[in-house]
Fold:
Amino acid sequence: MLESLRKHWPEYLIEAVCLGTFMVSACSFAALLAHPESPVQSWMLMGTPMRMLMGAAMGLTAIAIIYSPWGQRSGAHMNPAVTLTFWRLGKVDSWDALFYVLFQFIGGASGVIVVHAALRSWVSHPSVNYAVTRPGGRGPGAAFFAEILISFILMSVILTISNTKRLARYTGLFAGVLVATYITFESPISGMSMNPARTLGSALSAHVWTALWIYFTAPPIGMLLAAEVFVRWRGARAVICAKLHHQNDQRCIFRCGYAMKANPPAGSSA
Structure:
């Protein structure tokens, strides 16, 4: 444990900063779009157009983080369910997975606290409420299954694109487009989380614990199911690495197939 922490603490800290940045963006854009005193309110946008703007903002935020130098360094999981899935696929060591998850939760909560310190009455206003995720009008059951479905699709796309040579560099773009699409069309059902650390970060500041169990169970279930389908389809060896973007010169702390190809074992014909 101590050896992993000593060697890989920069990646752990980066994961915290990446999700913290995502939460700063989420809460800030939620305040800008939803607060009654925001100039955006003069546009009279509601419903789908408003969610489309929020989706575009968060999709671009996700893309920017994934392709940033720090996102390239840590792999930009930003989500305990993503890390757990790559751990299940054998690409992340157990201690690295544990610390990634811990720092993701710390980062998510810290990001919301930073926005609260800066915006206070805006981000705490009931119309914004720290960008909490909670079930929509169809109830917890629909939210649970919707979270499983969108998490399943996201991880299926990540695994397929990142392990297809000619498309791998575009994994972050595909992920960002899905985030934008989900916020636009799915968020009325579940709030669109797919991320236990993201949901808890908002819940801690908002003191809203509505159906929290959904966001701790459905995303891992959906992503692990996607991993099982992918392994049965293409095999476990088809998963090359746990990074969402690997076409860079940043170090990789994972059980990386790219590193194996670059440094084959002695006597190997690779």
User: Anything to note?
Assistant: Residues 265-270 have pLDDT under 50 and may be disordered. DSSP finds twelve helices and no strands in the chain. The CA atoms of residues 17 and 180 lie 21 Å apart.
